[in-house]
UniProtKB/TrEMBL annotation:
One GO molecular-function entry: transaminase activity
Function: Acts on leucine, isoleucine and valine.
Gene3D superfamilies according to UniProt: 3.30.470.10
Name this polypeptide is given: Probable branched-chain-amino-acid aminotransferase
InterPro entries noted in UniProt: Aminotrans_IV (IPR001544), Aminotransferase-like (IPR036038), BCAT-like_N (IPR043131), Class-IV_PLP-Dep_Aminotrnsfr (IPR050571)
Keywords, comma-separated and alphabetical: Amino-acid biosynthesis, Aminotransferase, Branched-chain amino acid biosynthesis, Transferase
Organism: Roseomonas alba
Amino acid sequence: MKGSQDFAADPRNATVKVYLSGALVPRDEARVSIFDAGFVLGDGVWEGLRLHKGGLCFLDRHLDRLYAGASAIDLDIGMTRAELTEALWTTLRANGMQDGVHIRLMVTRGLKKAPNQDPRHAIGPATVVIVAEWKQPSPDIVAQGLSLATSSIRCSPADMFDPLLARRHVRYAAEFA
């Protein structure tokens, strides 16, 4: 069954440079530690952006959401909006990208002393990763379309998990540790 995430293979993606905490590295050399908070417990935020005809679509909205999400979990990205925007453009320029590009911008809390959930055990700055790839929809999807359905079941309603409440809990717990 075809899905909305299916895309046409593009051989140029094999040699893209990835932004990894301030450095541009070849795709096949991009690595993070197994002690990175993003790997250990998914502690981070991310956004998916599109580069279309030389412009980053809805960049301000994506950055608003990224920084709001980081704030909700008390994660210091370690870069201003202007610095992060420049890192995006640096990555795109390094790869000669102008159009038809999907960007995954990921920020984790960074390296941890040990693989546990306590955010106070982060030992360095946030890990910032930007992966830009040429991605166009699968030709089958373009030709045949997709079947969609809307579920009546809501996932994770606010009364089940509130990130702001979790943030207050972490601060409260830290005061009594």
